[in-house]
Amino acid sequence: MPRTPRDATAGTFHVFVHCVWAADAHFRDDTDRIEFLRLLAEITGKLRWKCVAFCLMRSHYHLIVVVDDGVLAAAMHRLNLGYVRGFNRRYDLRGRGQSHPYGSSRIVSDHDLLDRFAYVVLNPVKAGLCRDPGDWRWSSYAGTVGLGEPHSFVDDSPLLRALPRSELDPRAALRARVEKP
After folding, report:
1. 107 CB contacts (<8 Å, ≥6 apart)?
2. Closest CA to 155 of 139, 170, 168, 144
3. pLDDT at position 71, please?
4. How far apart are the C-alpha atoms of 4 and 120, rounded to whole Å?
5. What b/e readout covers 42-59, taking b as 16+ CB neighbours within 10 angstroms?
6. Using CA atoms, how far apart are residues 181 and 170, in angstroms rounded to an integer?
7. pLDDT at position 93, please?
8. Distance of alpha carbon 83 from alpha carbon 4, whole angstroms
9. CATH number of this structure's domain 11-178, picked from the four choices 1.10.10.60, 3.30.1380.20, 1.10.10.10, 3.30.70.1290
10. What residue spans define the domains of the chain?
11. Residue 135, exposed/middle/buried by CB under 10 A (0-12, 13-18, 19+)?
């Protein structure tokens, strides 16, 4: 049965990618993560998409992006192909970097965006890799909520606009929403 065509229209998406069964991890070390972020920054600068958030785990990664028509597939192809070529060179491997094509789901409302953001940045906490999402170096969270230096290629304005207008400090409100007990 043929695969359902991807949603290629403009909008905001949660994107996720898992590594192949043949590789023990999508990111084996900090060099892999730094190389991926370099590629992500490069592609964000060249293509018509905004990187709203990211989180790199050992076996997978998550992105929240805002894209124009037809951009998501092209950007993901460049990002994944560029990364796997470098990964394969570094580890003397061959073949695909992902076990399946990337997954993506449209974010349909401000509430949905805030929920997806929380899900993405809480991944390392739920995996037991850190106690607080701000402690995970390989996420945009700390920069977004003011706990660390923001990444130059991350545009968190859609997240901040999604919060109720009554919030005096939107970064603190976002942090409270994510880290609620």
Report:
1. 11, 12, 13, 14, 64, 113, 116
2. 144
3. 94
4. 25
5. ebbeebebbbbbbbbbbe
6. 19
7. 72
8. 26
9. 3.30.70.1290
10. 11-178
11. middle
pLDDT-flagged residues of the chain (< 50): none
Provide the whole-model pTM: 0.92
Query: Can you say whether residue 131 is alpha, beta or left, with left for phi > 0 and alpha for psi between -120 and 50 degrees?
Result: alpha
Gap between the Cα atoms of 76 and 44, Å rounded: 11
Structure tokens at 103: 């997954």
Amino acid at 61: Y
Read off φ and ψ for residue 36, nearest 5 degrees.
-65, -45
Which string of DSSP letters, residue by residue, matches 5-64?
Answer: PP--SSEEEEEEEEB-TTSS-S--SHHHHHHHHHHHHHHHHHSSEEEEEEEE-SSEEEEE
